[in-house]
Amino acid sequence: MAHTQSRTADAAKLDQIVTRAIGDLSAGYGGVMVSLGHRLGLYKAMVEAGPLTSRELASRAGCAERYVREWLGSQVAGGYVAYHAISDTYELTPEQALVLADEDSPYFIPNAWAVPASMWSDEEKAMEAFRTGKGIAWGDHDRRLFCGVAAFYRNAYRASLVPEWLPALDGVVEKLRAGALVADVGCGHGHSTVLMAEAFPASEFLGFDTHQESVTEARKIAAEAGVAQRTAFTTARADDYPGAGYDLICFFDCLHDMGDPVAAAAHAAKAIAPGGTVMLVEPFAHDHVEDNVSPVARIYYAASTTICCAHAISDGGRMVLGAQAGEARLADVFRKAGFTHFRRALETPFNLILEARL
Question: What is the model's pTM?
Fold first, then answer.
């Protein structure tokens, strides 16, 4: 059978698929190298250092030269480090530094590799879920998932949430400046909550999440940022968190993870103040599968398969949206919950920023 298929296969198409598969395999290997370079401080040791020999870099980072030399070869092959053949030296360009060394850069990527690492670690759980239809709760995943997701979103939120996303909502910034009550539902490690608290000292921010470990981490992050007096983090579900009269209720990249998103939206409808706003930030997606063909969509579909859908199923699975739900399905969720106004306020290559009002 295999021999027959090889004779009938289109050679050009086969070569294209094999090339793509090798590229993916190369990226998987490369991700391990990126993570090592980040955790060992190799990238940071190269920042603004100019050309370095492998021995010089090893000395700066406190590592063994022979390992560093081989690691540098992988970085040159992958286009992540520049190589000067005449002097046999290696250099990190300013652009490469923004992606690989500057932890505050919106382009910083190394921490994101913790997510696929956790997915590989949880492969047996995913296989069982596929075969049984059972879910996998967020807290049952490899711990690298929590830090990887938080770190991946933190810098994007830092670059865009306060200067771009909030101003795109009607009248929200004015309320926050004057003093508003805000609920950050599914807050995770609280990076979004803390960013808003830093920007709007007159307002009060409450973060809610079902994962106790994340709530504990959020409290630490808020304290380190000096906003603990204006923030509070509590373990609670999206459909029963306490309080009412919220001027702004936020869902940052989490509604699609919930087992009953309509119930979460309906609770927001009950908890929101008159004239209040729901800010829904979701992974960017078109409404149809055939339109979601891109590297970003592939990342989201893959993560959704083993993480997002798996958690929603573990959470009851009344409506399993997935990370590529699209605006139309999200709008339908809020219509069912009683909201009459729903619009796309902004979009990025990674996110849809949506506004809902009663």
Answer: 0.92
